[in-house]
Every structure is written in structure tokens, then in C-alpha cells.
Design brief:
283 residues, alpha/beta, 10 strands, 39% helix
Length: 283
């Protein structure tokens, strides 16, 4: 079979449109989850906050404005078919150019600094994005995008557990992380958990988990049960919407897992705020 040719400008334009749509439109599964949470919330203040979150999402979508002023670090997960060839440039260049143009023309806040310690001046482009590549079989490209805000990201955690540590130890780690975060990640939050792999793989798994749809349980029944268990524990903390008290602290919680070394049990927690922006396209 011949290679499939995708034009550089076609690819760049589709990524550009994905960035803007994701920044303006709250995913429907998240919107519905907030609606459903209103029925379960016991705090009158919490109910009022949840209604305001929906109103904010409605305005952002209709006016084509960012859902949140923190338009985040541009994070991409790319699955690229081995038979795909980009004509006129590279996929990496397409992502960089699309990100720069979207953050400029779409009036998205540019938040990236040149150096983490010695030169914290703004790049004024929101470059560079963070890109995770995976080569797969076939002739398609799947692109997942998330503008990851700093408030929730800063509350994330990673711990290297001992191999014999229990479900309860992991549950307590997640609950402690959420309690320390309080209202900082703008709850109700969505929690991604990566278990296994090694130090860096567990963090990538946690980020990947945040792309799952609300209510989508892990295909492994044991992990599906653990997702529900930890979610219930988090919602018993009383943190509530925006950290002001209530029942609904977490809209959902997702676990992704991977085999690991006999001496290791890494667990990463990646928090996402109620503005759980994520989108994907297949080309």
C-alpha cells in the first residue's frame, strides 16, 4: 500500500480549528455532568456556583471566548500512522505554527515563559507546546489537545509507593492531594491517575486519563471499581464547588495503568479544573 500524503497547510488548519474549539466549547459530557451535579449537591451555595459555571460555558461558546482566562499550556497527544507522510513540512512544525496562530488570532492568553528559573519572560506566542508522539499502524493521524491551566496542574502529585502498598494507601494519597489542593484547582475537578510504568510514564498516563469521557469506566473491572471507590472518597471530603463546601468536589476520576518493575509502584495524580477542556480530531 502506498503512503498517504497529507498537505502541511491542511494539517495546520485542522489543528488551529481544534485549538480554538477546545478553548471555547466545554465538552458536552462535562457540561452534562455539571448539570447532573446540581441535582446531587446539598449546599445552596454550591448549587448557585454550579449554575454559574454552566452560564459561563454558555457565554464562552456563543461569544467564542475562552471558557477560562487561563488558556493553559498547549498539550498534544499524537498517534501518527506509519503510512502517513506530511507534504510541505513536518507535523511538529504544523503544531507549533497552529498553536502560535490560534493563541494570537483567537485572543487566548499566552502563558509560557522562556526559562523556568533564570528568564521568566513571556514567549508571547504560548510556544513551545508539549507534544507526546506515538507511531501506530495505518494511514491516519489522531490528534488530542488539552489547554492545561496552571491552577489545577500545580496541585498535581506523584509518589513512588512500595510494591506491597494497598488500594487504601493509594486512595488516601489521592484524598490527601485533593485536601491539600482545596479550592485552588477550581472544583468540581476531574482527576486523572496513572499507576505503573515508571516515574515519567505514570505522569503521562495520568494526563492521558483526563481525555476519557465522564462516566467512562476502565475496561478492567478491578480498576473500574477502584475508580468509583476513590471518587466517592474524594466527594466525602466536603470541599465542594470552588472549595466553598458541598458534596460535589469531583465530577469523575479515571485510572490508566501500565506494567511496572518488580521493585516499583509509581502513582501520579493529575488534577483538572471544572473547565475540563479537551478535544480530538482524526485526519
Amino acid at each position: 500500500m502506498k503512503d498517504r500524503i497529507i498537505l502541511f497547510n491542511e494539517l495546520k488548519n485542522k489543528i488551529y480549528e481544534l485549538i480554538l474549539k477546545t478553548s471555547y466549547d466545554l465538552p458536552s459530557d462535562v457540561y452534562i455532568a455539571i448539570e447532573e451535579s446540581i441535582k446531587k449537591e446539598e449546599s445552596s451555595l454550591g448549587i448557585s456556583i454550579l449554575h454559574k459555571l454552566l452560564k459561563n460555558a454558555d457565554i464562552a461558546k456563543s461569544e467564542k471566548m475562552p471558557i477560562c482566562q487561563d488558556t493553559g499550556t498547549a498539550v498534544f497527544f499524537i498517534e501518527m500512522g506509519e503510512k502517513v507522510k506530511i507534504k510541505g513540512g513536518s507535523i511538529k512544525d504544523a503544531i507549533f505554527e497552529a498553536t502560535k496562530d490560534a493563541y494570537d488570532k483567537g485572543y487566548l492568553r499566552k502563558s509560557m515563559v522562556k526559562d523556568p528559573i533564570f528568564d521568566r519572560t513571556n514567549t508571547n506566542t504560548n510556544l513551545p507546546p508539549i507534544i507526546h508522539f506515538d507511531i501506530i499502524e495505518g494511514e491516519k493521524i489522531k490528534i488530542k489537545f488539552a489547554p492545561k491551566g496552571g491552577g489545577a496542574e500545580n496541585m498535581s502529585s506523584l509518589k513512588m509507593f512500595k510494591p506491597l502498598d494497598t488500594e487504601e494507601a493509594i486512595t488516601n494519597f489521592v484524598v490527601d492531594t485533593v485536601l491539600k489542593a482545596g479550592g485552588n484547582p477550581c472544583p468540581p475537578i476531574i482527576i486523572g491517575i496513572g499507576i505503573g510504568g515508571n516515574f515519567e510514564e505514570s505522569a503521562i498516563l495520568a494526563k492521558k486519563a483526563l481525555f476519557r469521557k465522564i462516566g467512562e469506566r476502565n475496561s478492567n473491572p478491578k480498576y473500574a471499581k477502584l475508580e468509583e471507590k476513590i471518587k466517592n472518597a474524594v466527594n466525602n471530603t466536603g470541599i465542594g464547588p470552588q472549595g466553598l463546601g458541598g458534596r460535589i468536589t469531583c465530577l469523575d476520576l479515571f485510572i490508566e495503568y501500565f506494567p511496572c518493575h518488580i521493585a516499583s509502584l509509581p502513582v501520579a495524580i493529575n488534577l483538572n479544573c471544572h473547565a475540563a477542556r479537551h478535544g480530538e480530531i482524526e485526519i
